[in-house]
Amino acid sequence: MKGNEKLIDTLNSLLEGELTAINQYIVHAEMCEDWGYGKLSGSFKTRAITEMKHAEKLIERILFLEGTPIVSNLSDINIGKEVPEQIKNDHSLEVDTVKDYNEAIVLAGEVLDYATRDILMEILKDEDQHVDELEELQDQMDQMSLQIFLSTQN
What we know:
Number of strands: 0
Distance between the termini: 49 Å
Structural class: mainly alpha
Radius of gyration: 17 Å
CATH topology: Ferritin
Largest sheet: none
CATH class: Mainly Alpha
């Protein structure tokens, strides 16, 4: 089924964001693992896996719409040198992602591609959850102090 070119371009842009997030989360996960924060590393890895599933859904949809998935583009990857900076960078990435998905959902509706819109809405729910999880970690750091927070991440 030949899809709308603007929507396919938008899906490729979302794919770029997902691939960027995967890389950023994996690096943060491995850094935390190296520092002995296994619990925090696990949460980053889990988020990376979710982003991989999103990328897969986007690739499948682009192909269905007879587009070409572009997997060679990445946005800037912002690696934090310390845990608070990692969480801040990841939060910023997710907030931008939520905005991008909301705009893509509107576009899918405008071009009357409701199946794509439904897929994007499903992914958006996960992205909203990622924002919530990262805000939860930021709140915990603020309430506990960084040292106590990090001591709970072994």
